[in-house]
């Protein structure tokens, strides 16, 4: 972290919001294995916002971090579902073929 003002503001926001954000992400996630990734991505984006816009940009930190978390969840599962559909469409083969024909 480069600027001490950004680091202290980030720590302040993290300390006051991490439980609520974790509870929100946990309630909205389809799979428990995804919770840590989404949680980290949420706070990484918060740091990027602070770094880009400055510490005075944020007036309501809880609203901002919840909005970031909501978008992260939506993007994560949207991408996951798109990848699953893509993979399922591309790995269709007829019933008589063997697995040896494919490079897994």
Descriptive notes:
- α1 crosses α3 (61-90) and α2 crosses α3.
- 71% of the residues lie in helices and 0% in strands.
- The chain is mainly alpha-helical.
Low-confidence stretches: none
Largest sheet: none
Could you tell me the number of beta strands? 0
Distance linking N and C termini: 42 Å
Calculate Rg over CA atoms. Answer: 20 Å
The SSE string, one letter per element, is: HHH
Label the overall shape: elongated
Helix content: over 70%
Query: What class would the helix/strand composition place it in?
Result: mainly alpha
| Average predicted local confidence, pLDDT | 83
Residue share in β-strands: under 5%
Number of helices: 3
Quick summary of this structure?
The chain has helices at 4-28, 35-53, 61-90.
Question: In terms of topology, how is this protein built?
Answer:
Blueprint: H1 4-28, H2 35-53, H3 61-90
Keywords:
mainly alpha; 0% strand; 104 residues; single chain; elongated; 71% helix
